[in-house]
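Why do we care about 3D structure at all? Because function follows from shape, and shape follows, mostly, from sequence. That is the central idea of this module. The next example makes it concrete: a single protein chain, its amino acid sequence, and then its structure expressed as tokens.
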Amino acid sequence: MAEELIQTDFTEQPKRDAHWIFIGNDGIRAGWSALIFIAIFIALEFIAALPIFTFIHFRVERGAPQPAHVVVVQEAVQALLVLLATFILSRIEKRPTAVYGYAGKARLVRFVGGIACGFAAISLLVGALWKLHFLAFDGSPLGGPLAWKYAAAWAVAFIFVGIFEESLLRGYLQYTLTRGVGFWWAAIILSTTFGVIHGSNPGESPVGLFSAAAIGLVFCLSLWYTGSLWWAIGFHAAWDWGETYFYGTSDSGMLAQGSLFSEHPTGALLWTGGATGPEGSLLIVPLLLAVVLLMWLWWGRRVESPFRKQVAVVPES
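And the structure:
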């Protein structure tokens, strides 16, 4: 009898372990869910993005100024695909798509507030660089209707950039990894990834990579306070628009065709940012600390984070 019991326990244990590896109390475990999301997104890139980009013959030389219409199409397609991947996972997990950062009653207010904060932040940084003689303006290459045309085109482009990058790294993946390792560990992992991804940009620098990761953490902080991506999307879009179009500086090493002003850096690389742009300047560190302080003063004392009660799921031993 004892041998039979031992035999039964031994044969049933692998089935229980296999189930435990893939499925937890919240359904598919966070790590597997994240890998499935990434796999679906990559598959969609091969199925849709690559054929589209090949069909319309986007051949822009690496490091050359980027045309607005190219960026609009590229980022619109990428944004659509990441939203589609998020929707597919929401159906698999039987959750509303909005829970992955798109919910909230004040979506428009958050978005517009983010736009105002993003443009103010990049203006302060560029203004400081100019005042300290680390940046010199060369005039305005655009005027009249052409300036408005490029302003609108780049605004659309960077709204898609904001939707794509925030949805990819602080939408589904942030929500899902929070289930596995907790909000702030997920934020550190994804923000570091955000910085590493920027390493492929021409003209990027170590300070620029640090800045990208640090800005990612600032966006995660806004998600922590508001429970949505809308403020981060607005800030991200306005920061890039101000940096690239309005002030005409490099944006993480990228230059734009058609900017309101043109400029050139003057002085030591660590202070000017060089080819990286203002994000490569050490002056961005006090700026981001000031943004974090203002976020805490505005939100930190008035709201309770919706993620505070969402802790990592620790498997039972």
